[in-house]
Amino acid sequence: MTGLPEVRFGIIGLGLMGKEFAGAVGRWGHLSDPAAVPVITGICDGNPAAHRWFQDRLPSIRIATTDYRVLLESPDIDAVYCAVPHHLHEEMYSAVIRSGKHLMGEKPFGIDRQANERILAVAAERPDVFVRCASEFPYFPGAQRVYDWVSSGRLGRIIEARSGFNHSSDMDLTKPIHWKRIAALNGAYGCLGDLGIHTQHLPFRMGWKPGKVFGSFSKLVKERPDGAGGMAPCDTWDNATLLCEAEDGLGFAFPLTLETKRMEPGSTNRWFLEVYGMDASVRYTTDDPNAFHFLETRGKEQAWCRMDLGYKSMLPTATGPIFQFGFGDAILQMWGAFMSELYGRPVPFGCFTMEETRLSHALATAALRSAETGAMEPVQAF
Question: What is the pLDDT along the chain (382 residues), one digit of tens a residue?
Fold first, then answer.
C-alpha cells in the first residue's frame, strides 16, 4: 500500500494459525486506514515440507529455514509471529525479544507460570520491543458490542457472567494424538492452556480480575491412535470449568464462569460470552456469529432481542456493512490492532497484553491447585 511503512515479518511455526496470518496479509488492502503494512519475508518450521504452501503464495519470502535462529539473525526481519507448542514458548519467545524483534506470540505465553514469568522478565529488559499475545474472537462485532454495553455501565450491577470456548472434534475417539494432548508438550493446564485466554480476554479487559477460583477438570479419554498403528496415552485435561469470584466496576462481587472444553457434544467451535445485569443483559456466541442478543429489564417480565449487526468491524474496512463477518475477518482485525499499537496508534480494543498473560497464568495455577485440594483457592497475582 503506497506511502505506508512496512513491517517485515518472520513466521515461526507454519501450521493453521501461520496460514491464517498469511491470509490476513493477503487481504491487508481491505483495511481502510492501516498504520503499516506487514510483509512476510521469512518462514521457519522444523518440517521443511511445510514451507511449500507459503512459498507458493508469498513471493516476498527471502528466508525459509528449519532453525528459528536464522530468522532472528536476519536484518530482513523486523517482527515475528510465533505459533509453536507450549514447551517451546520460553526458549523461542525470549530469544525473539532479546533479538530486538517485535513479537506476537500464541497462547498461553509459556507452558506454566514460571516460564511465563521468565518471558516477561526478558521483555522488561527490552521496553523497545512490542510484545502481544494472539486472541482473535473478541474482534467479532457481536463480542465488541457486548464489551461496549458492559464498559458503559449500561447493565448496572452485574449478576453473573459466563465465557467459554468449547470444541467437539475430540468426541471422535479415532482422532489421532496431537501434541496438545501430551502434558510434556502442552503443559499441566491441559485444555485450559490453549483455550483459556480465549475466554479471558474480554472479562479481563472489562476489569474483572478473579480473586478466587474453584476448578473442575476432567480427563475423559486415556489414549488415542498414535498414527503408526498403535495407541498413545493422553495425559492432559480434556475439559475444565472455572467458577471464579470477580468484582464489577461498582465493587460488587459476582460469579464468573469460564469454560474450556475439548469435548462438548455439538460444539464445533463455540466461543461465547454472556453477561447478566440488573438493568440489562447481553449475549454473544459464534453459533450465531452475526447477531447480538440483548435484554433490557423493564418490570417483572423480560424478553430477549436479537439484532443482526452485519459487518461492523472495529477497524474500518472496504467490506460493505450489510455483509457477514467471519473468522478470517477477526484475524485481520486482530493483526490490524497489533500493527496500530506497534505504531502508537490507539485502538478501541487492543491485543492481549503481557500483564494479562501474567493474570491468566495466576488464574490457571490457582485452578489446578483447586482441583488438587477440592476447595476454592485464591488467585495470587504477583
Answer: 678 999 999 999 999 999 999 999 999 999 999 999 999 999 999 999 999 999 999 999 999 999 999 999 999 999 999 999 999 999 999 999 999 999 999 999 999 999 999 999 999 999 999 999 999 999 999 999 999 999 999 999 999 999 999 999 999 999 999 999 999 999 999 999 999 999 999 999 999 999 999 999 999 999 999 999 999 999 999 999 999 999 988 889 999 999 999 999 999 999 999 999 999 999 999 999 999 999 999 988 999 999 999 999 999 999 999 999 999 999 999 999 999 999 999 999 999 999 999 999 999 999 999 999 999 999 986 5
Instruction: Evaluate the omega torsion of the peptide bond into residue 108 and state whether it is cis, within 30 degrees of 0.
Output: yes
* CA contacts within 13 A on the Cβ side of 364: 30
How far is Cα 1 from Cα 229, in angstroms, rounded to an integer? Answer: 50
| List of domains in the chain | 6-133 (3.40.50.720), 138-316+354-373 (3.30.360.10)
Question: How far apart, in whole angstroms, are the C-alpha atoms of residue 249 and residue 170?
Answer: 38
- C-alpha dist (Å) from residue 84 to 46, 219, 247, 255, 283: 10, 24, 34, 34, 32
CB count, 10 Å around CB of 89?
A: 24
CA 63 to CA 55: how far, in whole Å? 10
